[in-house]
Amino acid sequence: MNEAPSTAPVCYRHPSRETQLACTRCERPICVKCRIDAAVGFQCPECVKQGNKGVRSARTAFGGGRVGQLGYACQAIIAINLLFLTASAIFGGPRAIVGGGGWFGLLGISTPVTEWGEVLGYAYYPNGELHGVAHGEWYRLITAMFINYGAVHMLLNMSLVATLGRYLERQLGPLRFLALYLIAGFGGNVAAYVFQAQNQGSAGASTATYGLVIAVIVINRRLSLDAGPVIPLLVTNLIFTFSVPNISVAGHLGGLAAGAAAAAVLAYPKLPRRGLKQGLGCALVLVIILAATVARTYYLLN
Question: Are 32 and 10 in contact (CB under 8 A)?
């Protein structure tokens, strides 16, 4: 007995599968495995992909991408700080981690790594070599924000990155958050360069993390959220800055000021061309900081 061939439609992606379903957009037959639920009926993968091309990716209130929810920027900052501390331990021994002095012996000692990367204006080393930012070692104004004197110093700073930093990265997106962090750290290091004695070295991520504290206040005010819980943290840090010996007051206050300026230019521009306005604002802050650097260098060399 002969059988008539089946006339049932087959899935356009799987010709061996018969189906009674069809894409509500292109009307091509699709099987159960290929169907994608839509507002009305089902759609095929190609129609869904085509429709997504016209959908703008979700942005934060300040124009940042939602990838900031993953915290990649904060993780990178913590990893870099950890790498520098590891290098300090390799070249300086266990006391680079703890037991070197300061804060009841909780800080680490100075090592070849900290001496290489800390903020230093213009001074001779014991071996007679001349070093410092004014001697052309401008990299110190960047590296100093990733170098900490021991594990306790690093943990205190990285705890703020892990909490306040993650919050700010979610609000701003990773690129804008990194701009804020780097401007705050750079501004704090430049303030240390400008206002400290030229032979006084200093380093620490606190130049940047102080900027994070004030940035949370700025961002929350812009969002009409309560910034009250952060105020005690700011006050505590300021008391700590002015009461504990051998703290870079200029570095902390410089990071605070630079962080506030960067947060303001990221938080308050509105559409249209918000990204352009934010970029120009950050560039202006950097120009001011660089001008202070050039002026200090000229003073030290003349």
Answer: no
pLDDT digits (tens, 9 = 90+) for 253-280: 999 999 999 999 999 999 999 999 999 9
- At residue 218's C-alpha, the angle toward residues 214 and 222, to 5°, is 165
252 noted as active-site residue: yes
Q: Is the peptide bond before 272 cis (omega within 30 degrees of 0)?
A: yes
pTM of this structure: 0.82
User: Which amino acid type is present at position 98?
Assistant: V
The pLDDT assigned to 54 comes to 55
Q: Torsion over CA of 248, 251, 252 and 258, rounded to 10 degrees?
A: 170
Short-list 173, 153, 167, CA closest to 104: 153
Q: 173: helix, coil or strand? A: coil
Q: Which of 131, 135, 153, 252 is catalytic?
A: 252
User: From the candidates 88, 202, 206, 248, which is the catalytic residue?
Assistant: 206
Query: What domains does the chain contain, in order, with CATH numbers?
Result: 1-55 (no CATH), 66-301 (1.20.1540.10)
